[in-house]
Design a protein that fits this description.
This protein is α+β, with helices and mostly antiparallel strands and 515 residues long. The protein is built from 17 helices and 16 strands. It is elongated. The structure holds adenosine-5'-diphosphate (ADP).
Length: 515
């Protein structure tokens, strides 16, 4: 038969073991261990101190110790070094002496190191308020509680580490710019990060458990093997190769499909079983846009630049003919056409260069004081000399202020707007008007032409955009309004089509008054 206290010790240790598997709150568990240790050692008070890299030495739980004494002990412990593999019970005699002194010999104590992986991670202390030394038995008993406490601390640390790891993983998934989809080996959705929810315009809850094919829906099947076929033929098990698909995805409630590239990669467990297939979904809209830009660029260069070059070449060849004597008037007219076409060519090349420069890194402005009304009058006079069909009106309030602007660039904006007004309206008045608002000034160019089709409105300021009608009937690069927008933006202003104007088209821009 075990002696009575041994039975109680066994029961307590069993109870602690049970609590170890059930209780996740470390402090509650340590307090439980401490209270039992105090009871088993017929003590009156005690504490458990822990040591870690972040907080150093500190009292984790305590029982029956007066506040003032506790503060004193806490401060003393905090001052103890944490470095080194100190497995001696260095603090114990010191703490015992302190308590003995303070209680005038009324308290005796015992302290045991808590050791985990050969490192001291804390100490457990029990005090008695009667004289009498702690026996070897007492120390052995306390050692078993110290071991339990060490296991509790280790569990809690492991649990926290795992939790931190998973939080880190969650944060990583959710902060990733690419969409990430985690699939089960049978291709059902297990997780989906925020970026993918945004890309697909859906929520994770709506997709979890669904087959991948119901979430990754292609507008038309992409080229190559389907994921299901690849997985069925053992792609995941066979190699570590990434499986890549590219195409347009159908999105919940949105009309426009989304161009994406998806890389699938297998994830294996420690015993080599396929755990997951991770899909990383990249929005390749910008890549596609760049591709389209390149195509537009090539088509503009080949169509628009070829026309003036052909005209110039034609006139020059005619004038050079040796067998004909051209009179002065014809020569002069031909040279005028050549000059005009060369100017047009220069303008187009400059627009193309500006657009390329803008893409490479924005505009630098050379600002100086500029009177827009004066510039508008100058341009109106120049254009009046060039056309019989249009008349020009310049209408600005007399107190329209001069602003610090890049004159050349603002001239480019007005020139583009006036060129468009003349190009797209066969005749009638073209008006350049200005008005003042408290924080900015607004300048508009309006014509009496057919106006801008509402279907084209969202796109007219885009690079290379030309309406179908414009492309059929007029020459142009689709860069004019795009460049206007970029120049105005660089001046911190805005540009828009005035949709309230019904007699033709009116394009307005604003510029802040504190330029
Ligand atoms: P481009 O004139 O070379 O086509 P822009 O960027 O200047 O390029 O204009 C883009 C489109 O906006 C034009 O193709 C045309 O459809 C429309 N647009 C611009 N200005 C006018 C205007 N004054 N009247 C009617 N349509 C216009």
């Amino acid at each position: 038969m075990l002696p009575d206290y041994r039975v109680r010790q066994r029961d307590y240790l069993l109870e602690i073991s049970r609590a170890l598997t059930e209780e996740l709150d470390l402090d509650a568990l340590l307090l439980h261990i401490l209270r039992i240790a105090i009871e088993m050692l017929t003590g009156h008070a005690g504490f458990i101190a822990l040591k870690d890299d972040k907080r150093g030495w500190h009292i984790a739980v305590h029982e029956g110790i007066a506040e003032a004494l506790l503060n004193y002990l806490q401060r003393w412990l905090e001052a103890q070094p944490v470095e080194g593999e100190d497995t001696s019970e260095a603090h114990v005699p010191e703490i015992n002496r302190m308590l003995n002194d303070i209680s005038m010999g009324m308290l005796t104590g015992v302290g045991i190191n808590m050791i985990f992986q050969k490192q001291v991670i804390g100490q457990i202390y029990v005090f008695r308020n009667y004289r009498g030394l702690f026996s070897t038995n007492d120390r052995m008993l306390l050692t078993s509680f110290a071991n339990q406490a060490a296991i509790a601390v280790r569990n809690a640390r492991l649990y926290n580490e795992t939790r931190e790891q998973s939080l880190r993983l969650e944060a990583l998934l959710d902060s990733a710019a690419d969409g990430i989809l985690i699939l089960t080996p049978d291709l059902k959705v297990e997780r989906m990060n925020k970026a993918l929810q945004r890309l697909l315009n859906t929520s994770e809850e709506a997709c979890i458990g669904k087959p991948s094919a119901e979430v990754i829906r292609w507008a038309k099947p992409p080229q190559g093997t389907r994921l299901e076929t690849a997985v069925a033929s053992g792609w995941a098990q066979n190699g570590q190769n990434v499986f890549y698909l590219e195409g347009d995805l159908v999105r919940e409630g949105l009309r426009e499909p989304l161009p994406v590239g998806i890389s699938y990669g297998p994830l294996f467990s420690a015993d080599d079983a396929l755990m997951n297939i991770i899909a990383s979904v990249r929005d390749i809209t910008r890549f596609r846009t760049a591709e389209e830009m390149k195509t537009s660029f090539i088509s503009v260069v080949s169509h628009e630049l070829k026309t003036p070059i052909a005209l110039i070449k034609g006139y020059v060849s005619t004038l050079r003919r040796d067998d004909v004597e051209w009179d002065r008037e014809i020569v002069s007219e031909s040279l005028a056409v050549i000059e005009e076409e060369a100017d047009r060519l220069t303008e187009m090349v400059e627009d193309l260069l500006d657009a390329t420069r803008l893409q490479a890194g924005g505009l630098t402005l050379k600002k100086s004081e500029l009177s827009i009304p004066q510039l508008a009058r100058f341009l109106a006079d120049r254009y009046t000399a060039q056309t019989d069909q249009h008349s020009f009106v310049v209408d600005f309030p007399p107190d329209f202020p001069a602003l610090a602007l890049d004159e050349e660039r603002i001239r480019q904006v007005l020139t583009n707007l006036l060129n468009n007004a003349m190009k797209y309206s066969p005749d009638g008045e073209i008006r350049i008007s200005g008005k003042l608002r408290p924080k900015d000034v607004v300048v508009c160019v309006s014509d009496r032409g057919p106006g801008i089709d509402p279907r084209d409105l969202p796109y007219v300021f885009e690079r290379f955009y030309r309406s179908d009608e414009a492309a059929k009937t007029t020459k142009g690069t689709g860069l004019g309004l795009y460049l206007c927008r970029e120049i105005i933006r660089a001046h911190e202003g805005k540009i828009w089509v005035d949709e309230t104007y019904k007699e033709g088209s009116r394009i307005c821009f604003s510029l802040p008054r504190d330029q």
